[in-house]
Amino acid sequence: MTDEEAREIASAFLADRIDEIRTGEWVVTGAWEHETAWSVGYQSRAFVESGRISDALAGNGPVVVPKSGADPWLSWSGRPVEEQIAEGRPTLG
């Protein structure tokens, strides 16, 4: 899987769940390769364009795109994404 493929998968995943992605108010900002997955970051377009912290999204963890082809998932912002990828998809409760 390439960087571009990971970005496309993450964008489609987010677009299915978040209106701001569909409207272009949020954008994919980068993809980072890990051993078994890619982590794909996203941010508000306003912040990317202005650099003003008041325009930034906060508390959003990256989308994890497993290289295995498993479904992507949102990581939590409070823990390193590398740890979450090593543990596998988190469950609630």
What does this structure look like?
The model has no long low-confidence stretch (mean pLDDT 89). The protein has 93 residues and is of the alpha+beta class. It has a 4-stranded antiparallel β-sheet. It starts with a helix and ends in a 6-residue tail after the last helix. The chain has one domain. The chain is globular. It has 4 helices and 4 strands, in the order ααββαββα. The longest helix is centred in the N-terminal third of the chain and has 15 residues. This is YrhB domain-containing protein. InterPro entries: Imm35.
Q: Short summary of the structure?
A:
With 93 residues, the protein is an alpha+beta fold.
Gap from first CA to last CA: 32 Å
Topology order in helix (H) and strand (E) letters: HHEEHEEH
Number of DSSP strands? 4
Mean pLDDT: 89
Number of domains: 1
How large, in whole angstroms, is the Cα Rg?
Answer: 13 Å
Q: Based on CA inertia axes, which overall geometry fits?
A: globular
Strand content: 15-25%
User: By helix and strand content, what is the structural category?
Assistant: alpha+beta
In the sheet with the most strands, the strands line up as: 1-2-3-4
Low-pLDDT runs: none
Major sheet: 4 strands, antiparallel
Helix coverage percent: 25-40%
Helix count equals 4
List the helices and strands and how they pair.
Elements: H1 3-17, H2 19-23, E1 26-33, E2 37-44, H3 45-50, E3 63-66, E4 73-74, H4 81-87
Antiparallel strand pairs: 1-2, 2-3, 3-4
